[in-house]
């Protein structure tokens, strides 16, 4: 069985859900092998073993985190060669896609981004044109590189865990890969709410919150949801830019998307219109968001959201 | 501070207007490009180039901002628009054999084109095309040209250290914000956070009439037609289906209990 390489980037604590999804996909498509950047701790290696990983190719070279993107792509290209991989699976983050892009050039491999499903034969499904079409893509080269969106598959451990062999890899970085130095790194505060790209429920606020995200956050918290925003809200500085949903922000596809005080501009819809269920609260009945809402409330979000949050609490307590 | 005047290439794409419905059709699932415009995300790259030139003190008339596109005949309208906004000259790579190029083929053609244009200080691009939406091209271009890749910049500045020209920019991620630095020449992509693109004004529109657009073919670049287009692409679109239209939902007007009705709806959908 041929190897399917999964890139795992410096997991701080345990394996994140997107990584576990990739490992599950890799096991269905071939023999799962991991390219692990960072320290190969016994915990991480054991966790990889529970997903049936046979080999772990590991590099903890400092260049991997001192320079932007390129060294990681070089590492993956090297690992894919060593493993003779027929495919590389990688997270669909901004960085993940760029790593895929460069590894594609190094390996002369076709790259498919934004996959929402990957079949065992490596056919990938993606949603294109801002969610208005679904396409099926295939790679024509011997090696396929696919970046996969979170929530594409339910992660499943292997029936029988493995004890992966850990092999150290030393990558020979070329000068062009060590060209963009990270001269300063500011870590952002970690939110206690679910991650936007992975959340089952998203509650998003727009210009209509008028500087006060409290009702949005309160409803999000009773639902265990992530908080999102329109660009009008992030541009105004009412919430951090990483909460932006849309063409130039995140694309989300949760079970439930609650939009509050957002008009539903085309660039906003681009990031959320594939959500399973859409609820909109807006005081203007003419807002385009109502065209895609499964349930819409023409009303004031400052009344509707707190009432809904209160009602959910009441039902849970009774 | 400047030693020589800046020479910037801005990559712009002619894309179907996102304000209208967009359609894929035909055996190869190609995009209908009849209602196309200069990609709005590439306007940020052009604006960034113009601002760098303006703030560098490069004497007017010396610095160059070349707007470059690869696309069918009508794509030249995107270059013309860029000239009206302020680019100094334009290059249009147009060849029937380019149709259907994926990111690998596009980046090959654009890399060859950039080399053909001679030494540049910066290649500026948008953060993503609004039709392909992959963000692969800038990274693949940088890899092919073996130039530094400083991508998703939300700020950008040039500076000089002992006669060595460098570029610095901020890149925001979910868990971090990076300050990045590279020596020129470099490939830089910018986000929509970086500036507010200007519109063409009357003076710009008049001035654009005198600017030149050079049209190049694959032969001019010494590229083999089979290395680009559908034959040179490393991926295939096997099938494309329009997403089913969302059925009209229930819209209510709040009479004082809409929050409760909203919860009823969520409960009925098993979402609580
Ligand atoms: C290149 C480019 C990229 C872009 N990318 C994105 C993107 O990624 N994401 C994005 O969201 N936008 C993006 N935009 C911006 C987009 O075009 C819209 O301007 C933006 O989405 C508007 O945000 P909004 O709906 O919050 O504000 P508005 O359009 O101003 O709408 C506010 C809404 O709130 C309602 N409202 C006001 N008060 C209340 C209240 N008390 N209760 C209930 N409703 C109320 C109003 O009726 C109105 O419908 C982009 C634009 C460009 C040009
Ligand atoms: N055909 C093209 N002609 C010129 N520039 C392009 C072309 N395709 C992509 N680009 C540039 O690459 C950026 C990212 O595009 P993409 O990788 O398709 O998302 C765009 O914003 C453009 O700056």
Keywords, separated by commas or semicolons:
heterodimer; A: 318 residues; alpha/beta; Rossmann fold; nine-stranded mixed sheet; five-stranded parallel sheet; 9 helices; B: 272 residues; seven-stranded parallel sheet; three-stranded antiparallel sheet; 16 strands; 28% helix; binds flavin-adenine dinucleotide; binds adenosine monophosphate
SSE arrangement of chain B, N to C: EEEEEHEHEHEHEEEEEHEHHEEH
- On the 0-100 scale, what is the average pLDDT of chain A? 96
CATH architecture of the largest domain in chain A: 3-Layer(aba) Sandwich
Give the overall silhouette of chain B: globular
Query: Pairing-aware structural class of the strands and helices of chain A?
Result: alpha/beta
Beta fraction of the residues of chain A?
Answer: 25-35%
H/E element sequence of chain A: EHEHEHHEHEEEEEEEHEHEHEEH
How would you briefly describe this protein structure?
The complex is a heterodimer of chains A (318) and B (272). Chain A is α/β, with parallel strands linked by helices and 318 residues long.
